[in-house]
Amino acid sequence: GRQSASQRLCAMACRLLRNIRVPRRAARGWTRAFSAQKPPGEGRDSEIRVDASGLLQPTPPLMDFEFPEYMNPLAQHLYEMIAVTGSSLTIAEYMNFCLLHPLYGYYTTKPTVLGRGGDFVTAPELTSIFSELVCIWCIGLWQLQGDPKAIRLVEMGPGKGTLMRDALRAAEVLPAFHDAVRSGGVHLVEASPTLRRKQCETLLEEFGGRVIYAEGRNEGSGEGGAAAEASTDPTASKELPAALELDNGIRVTWYRDPLRVPEGPMYFIGHELLDALPVHQLIRVNDSWRERLVEPNIGDAVEFRASVIKRPGGLSEAPEAPADRMPGPDEDQFRVVAGEHPTEGLTAILDIPESELRPGLVVEVCPAALKLAQDIAKRIAESGGAAILIDYGGEGLPRESLRGFADNREVSWLKSPGECDMTADVDFSAVKRAVGEVPGVAAVGCVSQAAFLGAMGIRERAMALMNQEGFSDEDKEKLYQVFIRLVGDDQMGQKYKVMGIVP
Ligand code: SAH
């Protein structure tokens, strides 16, 4: 029969305890309290093994096996966590671990994921024109609002910092706007320490300046020898940059939470941000919604998954998985199942017409994106500013779209957690509904990226570049290819959408 959650917890705790090694000095006290032994067969003095197996009488552990070598640390960690808590992960939880786990997350540990040669290429990495046009959109709104003297230029999820670098360069053409940014500062919201360092590096390289570290240990460039060197290479220090004083007078400050950006008119940029926020998936079973969950792919995986997911209505017949068959090196380490009970909370934010409901329908919801959009909208309603959100997705039914990317190819996100990008289409209708609940702001769009860039003058800008002196035929050809990629119908032009939040 099935073990209860507490039995499983107990079994797992025992297994973990058995394997704890403590340094000899720390263990001396324990030696008296429990009967500690040297690990059998190991003559080393430096550690002893505490045999805690006598403390509890465990039921047979759910996962009394050695993890296979090919299973990465995050997969092992999640297997253990699921066993310890006795409950599967929501897809949103799984996605959060995969992307942002402090030690094993995709964004937290892999600084090279973006750009050519990385796992995916984003528009700002293709050409500076994209970021220039985003900057011009901000300038337009700033002018419409009577050119406030100090504004906060905010970007969330800045990746390598490329967009902000090119936008700040573009801002130099309008000194009054540049001054306003200088007065209010640039504010970057980033969850990944690795990418924060990368952003710091990108901006320093372009504009020069000095890094400010958290605990007031500031290192200046210009004056002073060794310290100056350290400051121009943010990767050299273990400490995380807290801010940056650029030589152009602009101060850049980092945050994890967008609500920490100080008051004042805020011009907010989110490019390929919302698609990285964790989604939940719900599946229609009989007349209710059940949340889809992620669990270890132990046992008779293929049939289990296929029948559970694909057969409408038949979810309770899931076979009990034998605990002895681990997924092989090329198989998914995890699988998706439907929760046993109807889920209520998330369905409140769904807006699916009755006529669309049918057994087996899978939809996605992203409460994190909705909350973020509302938070930004409230700020804009209070203090002015605007937000531009660019992502793939659309306004239709929020169908299942979560997918994994590595090496510019789609891969299974259930295979090796933390080793691929995970991304889901943005449900712009839901984002607009969320913004609509905030008085004093309006959601505009969404429009296609092609329409947006066209309206912002991408053709004119590209032509101007092409006619520049020293622009070779080869450069022209390259620029043309990039242009097509950004606005082409079957390329980014229609897939990507742009929406704004304005007062
Ligand atoms: N805008 C960049 C990068 C897109 S990748 C570009 O277009 O090239 C997504 C970015 O969002 C990464 O920088 C990632 O670390 C960041 N991110 C993901 N989840 C986040 C969260 N919850 N809070 C802040 N940043 C997040």
From TrEMBL:
Does the entry feature the keyword Transferase, yes or no? yes
What GO CC terms are in its UniProt record?
mitochondrion
Query: Can you provide one Gene Ontology molecular function annotated for this UniProt record?
Result: protein-arginine omega-N symmetric methyltransferase activity
Compartments annotated for it: namely:
Mitochondrion
EC id: 2.1.1.320
Q: Name one Pfam family in it.
A: Methyltransf_28
Reaction(s) the record says it catalyses? L-arginyl-[protein] + 2 S-adenosyl-L-methionine = N(omega),N(omega)'-dimethyl-L-arginyl-[protein] + 2 S-adenosyl-L-homocysteine + 2 H(+)
Keywords, A to Z, come to:
Methyltransferase, Mitochondrion, Transferase
Q: Which InterPro entries match?
A: NDUFAF7 (IPR003788), NDUFAF7_sf (IPR038375), SAM-dependent_MTases_sf (IPR029063)
> Which major enzyme category is it?
transferase
Protein function: Arginine methyltransferase involved in the assembly or stability of mitochondrial NADH:ubiquinone oxidoreductase complex (complex I).
What's the family?
Answer: Belongs to the NDUFAF7 family.
Q: What is this protein called?
A: Protein arginine methyltransferase NDUFAF7
